[in-house]
Amino acid sequence: MTGSLSIIGIGPGREDLVTPQVRAAIDRATDVVGYIPYVERIAARPGLTLHPSDNRVELDRSRHALDMAMQGRHVVVVSSGDPGVFAMAAAVFEAVEAGPADWRRLPIEVLPGITAMLAASAACGAPLGHDFCAINLSDNLKPWAIIEKRLRLAAEADFAMAFYNPRSKSRPEGFARALDVLKDACGDARPMIFARNVTRPDQTIRVVPLPDTTPDMADMRTLVILGSSTTRLITRPDGAAPWIYTPRSVPA
Amino acid sequence: MTGSLSIIGIGPGREDLVTPQVRAAIDRATDVVGYIPYVERIAARPGLTLHPSDNRVELDRSRHALDMAMQGRHVVVVSSGDPGVFAMAAAVFEAVEAGPADWRRLPIEVLPGITAMLAASAACGAPLGHDFCAINLSDNLKPWAIIEKRLRLAAEADFAMAFYNPRSKSRPEGFARALDVLKDACGDARPMIFARNVTRPDQTIRVVPLPDTTPDMADMRTLVILGSSTTRLITRPDGAAPWIYTPRSVPA
Prior knowledge:
homodimer; alpha/beta; Cobalt-precorrin-4 Transmethylase, domain 1; Methyltransferase, Cobalt-precorrin-4 Transmethylase, Domain 2; 2 domains; 5-stranded parallel sheet; 5-stranded mixed sheet
């Protein structure tokens, strides 16, 4: 009996952003493994066992999923957004590499999803319309010095930047430090976008010039985008939110 | 009569990667505007007019779409992948900013899609599982010096990198120069992934150590990913393709 493992992304929140490919994988699954709020998005049905688990147990969760697949189950590991962007796919492959040789025989597939930065970008225009980078601001798994170095080099490269996990209760000071570095490294008033609960009914999009940003503007439900030096704001009449975009060209 | 403009992404190729949100926008549209091969992916039906156009006319195409929306049409501007990543969204907003003030009153929405780098990443594991950047290697719209600077800074930041538009018939030498810069700046044998026609029936994924890469390995249908210094290859038995992933953590 051959099991399987599908590492899927269910997008940032709206149900009509779940791809049909991912929907079909859920329909085939016997077991769904993942962080509690993501597993809660999967509808219960006969024949499907839900295995919600807490945050910060990604490797245990991965091993559990791999074990069940070895036993012939059809296991789905669920992430929000895209599973390959600061999500479960890397954790599963870390577990595979360190695990029993037999795990390498399993059929493992990764099914992409709409990652939060692209939904946030779409919600306000096209701020990632030119070269950009994506940085996880959590220092759970990397030293702060690496984060600061990357922020400074990204500013020097004039990338637009998308920031995941900007701020948590356990690390309230990290985002303040990141903002200080960015204000120093960029030295201008380019827009920063705070997209909270993006694509959900309670979505909020706030656009603030970088010098006016404060750490409390982000929490763990916020995806933050910082424009490049060329990013533009298009004002609109009648109090409508501005559109923000980064042009495709860089003058010589 | 109020028209509308939806800038949509139809993903990299597989039809089951088109989100239901995008499918609904296509179903509502009266007009579809876009580059010929992308418009060809939209099914003809009564009441829908298709407006395919050639490459490199993005601003003309945008103005045409905006004009039609002003006339009350429900216009869809189609991109492959995600419309906000090296695609039509930035072009439309460039046209809006330079165009008549009335265009700013239009309801314009951007609907995200699965961008090629995330589909390519999923096809081979999770090479973008940690901090990464996305760079358009085309020098149509920016000087080569900017590209080289960004490649060197991205290597110094130790980002994984995704490259769009690596090589075209009109610019055969650009990718060769990019490879020279990357080999020099990285100085190791990290894997480069050449994902051609990703998610299509004729998809090919080729993984080559950076020092062994040659310019002919990419064309305009190839999405190229370069790992970071920490990216890992998991070998598999019986000739199966390796899995490639970038771990979530960076040691202190």
